[in-house]
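Key idea: predict the complex, not the pieces.
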Amino acid sequence: MTSELSPAAVQVLESGISSSPQVEHRLALLRKWKIPQGSKVLEIGCGQGDCTILLADLVGENGHVTAIDPASLDYGAPMTLGEAQSQLKASPLGNRITFKQTTVEEFCQTNDEIYDCAVFARCLWYLPSPDILLSMLRSLRGRVRRVLIAEFLLDLQGDIAVLPHMLAVISLADINIGQPSDPWTSNDNVQSICSPKMIREMGRETGWELETESIIEAAEGLEDGRWEVGHVLSESYAARVESLTPEPRRVYAKMLLDAVKQSTATQPLAAVRALPTWFSSWKPSS
Amino acid sequence: MTSELSPAAVQVLESGISSSPQVEHRLALLRKWKIPQGSKVLEIGCGQGDCTILLADLVGENGHVTAIDPASLDYGAPMTLGEAQSQLKASPLGNRITFKQTTVEEFCQTNDEIYDCAVFARCLWYLPSPDILLSMLRSLRGRVRRVLIAEFLLDLQGDIAVLPHMLAVISLADINIGQPSDPWTSNDNVQSICSPKMIREMGRETGWELETESIIEAAEGLEDGRWEVGHVLSESYAARVESLTPEPRRVYAKMLLDAVKQSTATQPLAAVRALPTWFSSWKPSS
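Result:
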């Protein structure tokens, strides 16, 4: 890992913001996009900045990352969004990063700068509905030269160890359908599932042309699969399933939960592998 | 196949009621239950009688199969339920079979006979809701000595070729949630999914004790997986998905459909393997 990153980035990462497999996986993604040094990057849905710090390292001392997220700065545990972002700002790479608590649409209305690229690094499934991507892509027209989207892909790519993660996210997308008044839902890492086909359609509809797309398997040890499966197999999640209405929705959700359990019956949770990631790059359509 | 069946049964089967893999698979299931010759069997949800003819052969000339199904005798293609049942009645094994167009509850109210066993041979997922099994199991108390249930299991059992069937039935169960006024739905072979856990809970609740349970992989060539995947990938099914409301349900259903497509992207439809079958036997709890 160290050979891929600057000493400054390594120092930040060693302070413990992300696990090593998370860093490895994000680096593998970002490297595929070949973002040039000196780039001005707009990162969408930056969260705690796990990807922001790597982008800041990649763009070098003449580049800059503007990282936006509308989530409350109080959100997150054990560290809140605000605490994590402050820590990165105080690091040796902090002067290459600007965090803003805002949506893409708001940001583009109140800002004139042109960015070399907008990066969506696995933030779409966190949206309550995939359709929100439509207005984000529209706002970015004329404001960024390329759009780079990376998101999990709902496929096993031949590896059966991915099945529990696949079923867990299907369950999460289901339980988050039309439950806006449910106070639990906002904490789910997966609230809806956006397929490459949906993203391709939304890109075309909003004036973007697909340049490249490909699929990368999850790094060994990437925890996302285990995290989501553990979440779905928790007692509090079972209680949410039991409280679903109407009855046919509850029965369907129970069935999915049973399938997640069944998929982990013959392999330990530690053996669950995360879903592969689909990534794509887009330019304005002429 | 012929060595397992009487010449009379072979003659009926060779007239083309079922494909060879279907017969092989059903025989493998029924053999596991070791139903003795001379048994009086009540078969629930017999449909066209594909399993009925095998049961009639297994129970021998001193046994009998009463096969019930509430579906209209006009239902089914290319042969209707009524035509298929008439053909079996006219066969050399016909005198061992009684078909009745009725529900379990109705049948048990209007009939005093005690049966050696009730057989549910993969008919539960056809129910609009798994909960219907509750009242069926209650009705059977005191009327049958054993209950034998075989149903698909939502698991890959380590075989990735099963994934398209798994995703297709999840899609079917989803599209059939709370769409009772949809004229299409009644033709789906899968309308809800009942897991072994749900069946175990319903058995306990209605006074039945689980004696044995196990899992059997689908016979190679069993068409059910390809049938359901083909159905879900049809144009008419895509139109049903597009017409779903409200919007979040439509988006979720599209996502499942995309996952089915993705799962068949790298293997031909002919390579899709059917889900394994879970089967169990029950006695009255003391």
